[in-house]
Write a structure and sequence with these properties.
208 residues, mainly alpha, single chain, 60% helix, globular
Length: 208
């Protein structure tokens, strides 16, 4: 269960399929990369170690996709991980547009999720305007993320404590939102978390 802009919920339907496919693909690519993940443009995620990245991806995957998981306390690193998954989807659509000779279905997945959330003027699946697809992805992401300030730690932490607290209180941000740390898993622990997360995601996209 996750606290989102649409209240406490888990993803389902096309939203869940899109997110699960992205997690699966991201984890597969991480297995081929050194040291594990390429930078996705979300600083609070990109700066984590491999073990920390796997840890937060496991937490958000279970929290967003499993109804029986208790409500998870939000933090910048967790929401940054969610944002990183959506940035990864943008990258995949870029590749899909640039390599029409290859078969992918990311635009179909995004269109289905956009339709499910009631978006209007969804691009045709053949649309090659990346900005249009990024707009749709951002709409989907904003309904999953509780706050869009996950990468703004410097704005709060660099202030005097009293001013920082006043600003956090005004924005409704918990005191530990920016200072909560991600567990740094060992390689063996990370491999096990990846295995569990891939099983979960495959069950949603119905892969063997």
């Amino acid at each position: 269960m996750w606290r989102t802009q649409n209240g406490e919920r888990t993803l389902n339907g096309a939203e869940a399929i899109l997110f699960s496919e992205a997690l699966l693909s991201l984890l597969d690519e991480a297995a081929e990369e050194e040291p594990g993940f390429y930078d996705l443009g979300v600083e609070c995620f990109d700066n984590l170690t491999f073990g920390q990245k796997v840890s937060v991806l496991s937490i958000i995957g279970k929290g967003l996709l499993c109804e029986d998981v208790p409500l998870i306390n939000l933090s910048a690193v967790l929401e940054g991980a969610i944002a990183a998954v959506f940035e990864y989807i943008k990258d995949e659509i870029t590749f899909e547009i640039d390599r029409p000779e290859c078969y992918w279905n990311w635009r179909s997945l995004v269109a289905a999720a956009a339709k499910e959330i009631g978006a209007e003027h969804i691009p045709e699946i053949t649309c090659t305007d990346l900005e249009e697809w990024e707009t749709e992805i951002d709409k989907i992401a904003k309904l999953v993320l509780w706050s869009l300030e996950y990468d703004d730690a410097g704005l709060y932490i660099d202030l005097p404590p009293e001013e920082s607290k006043q600003l956090r209180d005004w924005a409704g941000i918990p005191d530990d939102y920016f200072i909560a740390l991600a567990d740094d898993l060992t390689d063996a622990e990370a491999r096990e978390k990846i295995r569990e997360l891939k099983i979960l995601c495959k069950s949603i996209v119905q892969l063997p």
